[in-house]
Structure formats: C-alpha cells, structure tokens
Amino acid sequence: MIIIQKYKINISLLLVLLVLLVNGVQAGENNLRKIMDISGRWKFSIGDKDSWSARDFDDSNWEEIIVPEKWENQGFYGYDGFAWYRKTFRFNSKVTQLPFYLSLGYIDDVDEVYFNGELIGKTGSMPPFYATAYNARRVYRIPQSLIKTEGENSIAVRIFDEGGEGGIVHGDIAILMDVEAIPVDLSLQGIWKFKTNDCKIVENGLCDFSEWNDIIVPGYWEDQGYKHYDGIACYAIKFKLDNEFKGEDMVIVLGKIDDIDQVYLNGNLIGQSGKFSRKGTWGMGNFDGQLRGYYLPKNALKNNAENVFFVRVMDRGGVGGIYEGEIGLITQTNYIKYWNARPNR
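-> structure tokens emitted (345 positions)
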C-alpha cells in the first residue's frame, strides 16, 4: 500500500507544492467563467456501492450535508473511509458548443466523479493503491454528450478519506464554461489507453491495448495514480469515422502537454513539439503551456475504418501528461476561423 502522510511535510516542500498548485490553477482558470453556483445542501452517505453513481439512483433517504465543508463538522466526527455525495440540478444557462466544467474545490483525500452516471474524472488513487491528492483543485470537463438540456442532471462523487478531515472541504463548487475554447468538430476527450515507459509505434496503428491502463484525457497523470512519475509515457485512442470529414483538411487538437510530445496517426508521425533524446536522457525544448494543434496529411484519416492516435510524452519533472484544454478533431477551415477571431492574437 502506498500512503502519503498528509501532515508530515517540511517547509521547503510545502512551498514548492504551493507554487505548483497556484501555477496550475492560474493556467486553467483564466478562460473559465462561472455560470452556476451548486454549493449548499447535497445528499450524503457513508459506505460504498457502485449503484450510487447512477443518474436515477433514489437517494431520498440519504442525509443532507453542506458543501463545501468537512464532514467531521456535520455529524461524522472521526469517520475515515468511503463516502458518497450526490446532487441533482437543471441547467439554467443555454447549452452551447463551448465546453462546461464541474468545479469541486478541494477534496480530502481521493475522488471519482460521475455525471449522469458516467465517470468524468478522478484524482488520487483509491485503495488498495492509495495515494492522497488532498491539495489538488478539482475541475473536471463535462462531456457535451452527457448534458441533459431537459430535466435533471446528476452529479455523484465517490470519496475515500484515509485520516484527518474528509470530504469536499473547501473551494468553489460550481458549473464553469470555457469562453475561449477551440470548438472541435469531434471531441476525443475522455478515457484513453495509457502506459508508462516507451511503446513501440506499430505500423498502421494496429496494437493490442489489453495490458494498458485507462486514463482520463485531459488531466495530469500524477492525479490519476502515477504520482512522482517522470520520463516517457504513451497515450492511445481508437475511434471510427463515418465519412463525416471526407474531403476535409483536418487538425488534431491536443490541448496542453507537459513537457514534449510526438503524435502518430495510424502509425505515422504527424507532428511533435520538442525533441526526444537518446534513451536515458532528457528531451530538448520546453513547450509546457503551448497549445498543440497538428495539421493532418490529406486522406490520413480512414473513413468507415478504425483510426488510432498515439501520443508519446516525455515529462522532465513536476507534473506531466496531456493535462488541459480541448481534445479532438477540427476542420482546417474552422481552426483558422477560431484563431482569426481570437482577441489579442
């Protein structure tokens, strides 16, 4: 079992963590506008059952608890272990093509978050491979396909607390909208395949991912069970097109990546930021914070067949991975329109 002690941190390490945390929040917060406050009374139960994530689960017999506030102050003093929060709400804002995010502030220690029954994010590692993430701000992208414009939407938050205070303890609890996001034509945000260390880029993109793990993109890999990992890691996603972009010049948008990357489509290199060095040495270049958008060769995408994107990432320290921004395909025409319309470009 991996256990990170929450309170035995020296002052120098604490200062480093605070700098990383502030920089991370500022990087993702500049374009996010609050459209709905969802703090206040939520449903709550200690225990742990898979069925509690379902959109239509009947939580009428659950306790009510104030969010944000540690559960120890609300009748559960001394409780450590699993607990769930649930909230239902209606969108009071017009649902647009711009992406929505769920802000849950700071959670002690580990969480998994479900929107209308589907997992949309997680931070830290649940037992038996427990690792706390009590100092990480939770902001999760809500996939457009999950949003109900008519009727109720549900949020379910599974939490494990190892000790000390527990729950959704403080911070902004809200629905946010990214007002400067790239409006991709096909979102590839969500669950990708992932492995640490290098991988062989297979010709035609054919590969067996049965031994790869799932990871949510975008999101730092440190927040998803790979704390303190530095070096090369590989991402992959399979998807099928039904002629919707036939004849179009396309761009793959991969948000922001820490630190350098190489991107392959169906086994062919289509772009990179930075340079991978020889095995065992660091790569060259610093492209953290730079938006990745790679133009695809004509007819590189297969219609009525499976396509595979591979992304090799080298992280040289701190946090790493495909961590922020829109992920997906956009036509070159729409991509140019987006950049031409940006203020202060």
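Residues 1-28 have pLDDT under 50 and may be disordered.
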